[in-house]
């Protein structure tokens, strides 16, 4: 039994026995010193538990058990790891009610067992590299289990045939993000159906090449690189600027060359940001409170485009949206042959079903209008009713595209296929801002993916290496002419979560198939024949998913903090409202541009007017981009408003020394051996 030196079991403060109550003796429970209750803080720091135990006598220097606990260094290792979810505990040591010496001993023993269990679980957690991002409680209600158990880990090799299956499966689940961007930008540039098929083939080729490069020379996480929605909004801003509205001859090629030049300059900035080490410094200021609203703004930027385009053919778009929601939400737990097909293939299955339905509508004459021909330009139509019907026919009919007849069977995309890039300072500056936002987007994806695949966080040097390689991938996109830059797709997180496959070998095999598919011109023609209303409906869902994935970064911070929610709310609201002011400033654009392009026409007619044409164009364009404004606001607020690291929930990256001492990290993130010798440090 502990002595009077702080054990909490003294008869009284002077060491005298208490007087009895009635029979001259006092019960044990009545002369125990009152013990202060343990009030855990919001960060659940076990050091607070130890400090409370010392003050109340549960940790004493006189018993062997307490000596071991007091001197143990394992207990000091239990500290909250920033940037990951905190485990939930439903049991804390309660206030001693004075029920007697035996109960006190039992509580002391329970406390020691609880601490031992904490140390054992935490050590196992750290040794195995497992993280608990979802905070899912275990059966005993005390400690969370990993929410994701991977079928195949980062370095697993399930065999050649399974690699082919899982590789194609990964890209099939991302088909909406990979091939639907050309269905938006090519019509805006007045490109032909043949041009549409060529751009789709180019994107397939670049996706395959850049994904292989990232798997070997980037962060080496299982992430698909492709045309990102981050670059879509600025591309539409450039396309709808006043300079290009009145072009008639070779409008598509001229605008594409303009985009190529801007993307090349923006990609070079991203390469410098990564290779120079500036990204490592910038990572100190990029936290979940910055990433969450920025990525969410990427998806929200297209709310004025999504359903206005899909609404041109509601008999196609609404059933497709319903089908997507049914597959992803209501049937997500249904398994067929051991695979949750409705979750994995929700987008391609829904699109295929509705595309077939639209085919029967077309064949059945639902879009036949007497005296109206969709091939005649609307400017030459004399009957207004025919103009409306022609618009519906172009958006709804499955045979509206002429891509199958014009596209060759075999076509190999090649560099500068649209001509030599055009470099204008104003568009290049816009893409520099966009490349910075793309880097921030990728930082959040790297962190979330490393936790999802049960790998340790990459070092800042590895993140910088990944950003630099993304810049190189965007450089390739600018040289080949895909219309947008290449970056890590945010939707990767959702795909890995539902497929439970994190093998980078599978991604490499699938990327090789994409390269082969890109040479088949008719395949690009088939994808180019997707009705625009159907594509817009799928994009509505994907953009909504992007918003959800962006906001999910808030789980790494304290969402109950008024500071954090205020920064996110203010930056997200003003990130939508300020660009809306620039987008709606010039009402004359409503007479020139379709309604779904109005949000992207502010560059030439915004409120920023200084008389310097280049400066006016840049400022009006940049301030009309939701994601750029949101990022700038969130970045400034999060790094100026006072708040501790635990409150802000900063991302925690591994140290270079950790990687030098950890063979597992080296196997996960190190460059291939033949490449490593050219670098002075394996952590690069």
Automatic annotation (TrEMBL):
Keywords: Membrane, Transmembrane, Transmembrane helix. It comes from Arabis alpina (Alpine rock-cress). Pfam families: Xan_ur_permease (PF00860). GO terms for cellular component: membrane. InterPro entries: NCS2. This is Nucleobase-ascorbate transporter 11. GO terms for molecular function: transmembrane transporter activity. The lineage of its organism: Eukaryota, Viridiplantae, Streptophyta, Embryophyta, Tracheophyta. Residues 1-28, 55-77 are annotated as: Disordered. Residues 61-72 have a biased composition (Polar residues).
């Amino acid at each position: 039994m502990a002595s009077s030196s702080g054990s909490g079991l003294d008869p009284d403060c002077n060491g005298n026995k208490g007087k009895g109550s009635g029979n001259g003796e006092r019960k044990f429970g009545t002369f125990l010193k009152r013990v202060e209750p343990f009030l855990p803080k919001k960060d659940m720091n076990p050091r607070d538990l130890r400090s409370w135990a010392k003050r109340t006598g549960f940790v004493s220097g006189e018993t062997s058990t307490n000596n071991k606990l007091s001197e143990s260094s394992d207990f000091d290792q239990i500290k909250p790891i920033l940037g990951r979810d905190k485990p939930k505990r439903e049991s804390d040591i309660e206030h001693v009610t004075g029920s007697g010496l035996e109960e006190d001993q039992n509580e002391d023993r329970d406390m020691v067992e609880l601490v031992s269990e904490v140390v054992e679980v935490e050590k196992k957690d750290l040794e195995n590299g497992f993280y608990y991002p979802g905070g899912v409680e275990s059966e005993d209600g005390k400690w969370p289990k990993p929410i994701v158990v991977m079928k195949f880990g980062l370095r697993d090799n399930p065999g050649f045939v399974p690699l082919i299956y899982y590789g194609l499966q990964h890209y099939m689940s991302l088909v909406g993000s990979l091939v639907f961007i050309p269905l938006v930008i090519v019509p805006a540039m007045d490109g032909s159906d043949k041009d549409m098929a060529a751009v789709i083939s180019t994107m397939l080729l670049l996706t395959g090449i850049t994904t292989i490069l990232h798997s070997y020379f980037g962060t080496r996480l299982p992430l698909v690189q492709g045309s990102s929605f981050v670059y879509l909004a600025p591309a539409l801003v450039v396309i709808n600027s006043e300079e290009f509205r009145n072009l008639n001859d070779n409008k598509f090629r001229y605008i594409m060359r303009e985009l190529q030049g801007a993307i090349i300059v923006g990609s070079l900035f991203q390469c410098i940001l990564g290779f120079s080490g500036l990204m490592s410094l910038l990572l100190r200021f990029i936290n979940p409170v910055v990433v969450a609203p920025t990525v969410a703004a990427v998806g929200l930027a297209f709310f004025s485009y999504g359903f206005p385009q899909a609404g041109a053919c509601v008999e196609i778009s609404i059933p497709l949206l319903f089908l997507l929601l049914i597959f992803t939400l209501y049937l997500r737990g249904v398994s067929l042959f051991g695979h949750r097909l409705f979750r994995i293939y929700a987008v391609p299955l829904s699109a295929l079903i509705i595309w077939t339905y639209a085919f029967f509508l077309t064949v059945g004459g639902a879009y036949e209008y007497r005296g109206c021909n969709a091939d005649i330009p609307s400017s030459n139509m004399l009957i207004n009713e025919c103009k409306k019907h022609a618009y519906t026919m172009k958006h709804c009919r499955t045979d509206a595209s002429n891509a199958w007849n014009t596209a060759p069977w075999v076509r190999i995309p090649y560099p500068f296929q649209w001509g030599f890039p055009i470099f204008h300072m104003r568009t290049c500056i816009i893409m520099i801002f966009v490349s910075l936002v793309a880097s921030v987007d990728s930082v959040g994806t790297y962190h979330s993916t490393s936790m999802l695949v049960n790998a340790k966080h990459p070092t800042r040097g590895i993140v910088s290496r990944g950003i630099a390689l993304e810049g190189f991938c965007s450089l390739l996109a600018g040289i080949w002419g895909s219309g947008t830059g290449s970056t890590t797709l945010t939707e990767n997180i959702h795909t890995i979560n539902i497929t439970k496959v994190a093998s980078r070998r599978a991604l490499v095999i699938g990327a090789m198939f994409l390269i082969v598919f890109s040479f088949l011109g008719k395949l690009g023609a088939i994808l180019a024949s997707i009705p625009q209303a159907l594509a817009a409906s799928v994009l509505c869902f994907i953009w909504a998913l992007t918003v959800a994935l962006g906001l999910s970064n808030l789980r790494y911070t304290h969402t109950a903090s008024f500071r954090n929610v205020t920064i996110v709310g203010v930056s997200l609201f003003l990130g939508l409202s300020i660009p809306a002011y620039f987008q709606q400033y010039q009402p004359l654009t409503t007479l020139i541009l379709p309604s779904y392009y109005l949000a992207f026409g502010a560059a030439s007619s915004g409120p920023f007017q200084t008389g310097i044409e280049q400066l006016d164009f840049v400022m009006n364009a940049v301030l009309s981009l939701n994601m750029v404004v949101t990022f700038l606001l969130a970045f400034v607020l999060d790094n100026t408003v006072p708040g501790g690291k635990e409150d802000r929930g900063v991302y925690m990256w591994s140290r270079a020394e950790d990687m030098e001492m950890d063979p597992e990290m080296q196997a996960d993130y190190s460059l291939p051996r033949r490449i490593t010798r050219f670098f002075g440090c394996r952590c690069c």
